[in-house]
Amino acid sequence: MLKFILKRIYTAIPTLFLISLFIFGLQKLIPGDPALILAGEDRSLEAIAYIRDAYHLNEPIINQYLYWLGDALQGDLGTSIRSDESVTSLLLTKLPVTIELSIFAMLFAIVISIPMSVIAAVKKNSGWDFSSSLVALAGQSIPNFWLGFMMILLVSVRWGLLPASGYVGPTESLVQNLQTMIMPAFVLGTGLAATLFRHSRGAMLEVLAADFIRTARAKGVSRKVIYLKHALRNALIPVVTMATIQFGELLGGAVLTEQVFTIPGLGKLIVDSVFNRDFPVVQGVVMFSALMFIVSNIVADIAYYVLDPKLRHREVY
Questions:
Q1: Whole-prediction pTM value?
Q2: Residue 109: predicted pLDDT
Q3: Rounded to an integer, what distance in angstroms lies between the CA atom of residue 202 and that of residue 138?
Q4: According to its UniProt record, where is this protein located (predicted)?
Q5: Which of 11, 90, 199, 317 is most buried, most CB within 10 Å of its CB?
């Protein structure tokens, strides 16, 4: 097990290195002089010279990258141009909000997709199968921002059931926190549910056609035990890995959903930073998002290894 984990971590290091090169290179391709942008409206020669020296802008690009990479490895992703706050502290402030939204969205997706996919696989080619597949296709096709606006118009403006936007932390008011999270989590969860439905339905159909399921039926095992104990447990192996990867993507920031509902998470942070030309924050958030995606892939591989005995057996022999 430890050997498997170390191998996955070892293969992730070159990926992170290439991503850091890509992110740093894109920043250098942005038009304009960073020193002039950082100097603001004053732009005195002394201020520009100080900024060039502080950010090593007079040195070759490779040296600038090595300075930035060295600081990033120590947890220093730079300082925000707009707020003069550490990018790392900004990330740590916004991350709990995004984590909460991601957890609620994933719960919505699992609660919706798994029961639908099991019934659709068991009742293959039935009316339920076709209708649930149609609903899943609609959930995957409808843009999150459009669904978010429609939810606001219907649930908040017309019915007045939930707040249209904003965020209240769970420590301030748990009830208001849940109220502000329901709609954005549902909007995010519909797209996730559609993806999980397709994977879990396909996996369930594949398992139901396996020899051990036919053997269980021949032995007179009840349908409930076959579907829930034998079929579903084996079908969930690829679904768990897919859900883990999707959760990692959510941790990178649900940009459009957070912007529509004014949720102060990583997605809104990067949008605001792009409009404010706050390049260190953009750089830090993108790097953190890439790291979260790689970590989620590693966790998905580990989950697959733990759940699938074939991989463990292959490693032993």
A1: 0.83
A2: 92
A3: 18
A4: Cell membrane
A5: 90
**Rounded to whole angstroms, what are the CA distances from 121 to 112, 124, 136, 173, 204?**
15, 5, 14, 42, 6
Look up tokens 């060295």; give the residue: 70
Token code pair at residue 238: 């690829």
Pick the closest to residue 201 from 126, 251, 143 (CA basis). 126
Q: Whole-angstrom Cα distance, residue 277 to residue 72?
A: 20
Average pLDDT along the chain: 85
- CB neighbour list of residue 115: distance below 8 Å, 6 or more residues apart: none
Extract the tokens encoding 80: 């925000």
Helices (H), the chain: 2-29, 34-39, 45-54, 61-73, 87-122, 127-141, 144-151, 174-208, 211-218, 223-225, 232-251, 255-260, 266-275, 279-307, 309-316
- Grouping H, G, I as helix, E, B as strand and the rest as coil, residue 86 is strand
* Angle, CA 263 vertex, CA 260 and CA 264 arms, to 5°: 130
Is residue 316 scored above 60 in pLDDT?
no
Which structural domains are found in the chain, ordered by start? 2-73 (no CATH), 94-316 (1.10.3720.10)
Q: Note the pLDDT of residue 231.
A: 87
Asked if residue 264 lies in contact with residue 94, where contact means CB atoms within 8 angstroms, the answer is yes
CB 4 within 8 A of CB 302: yes
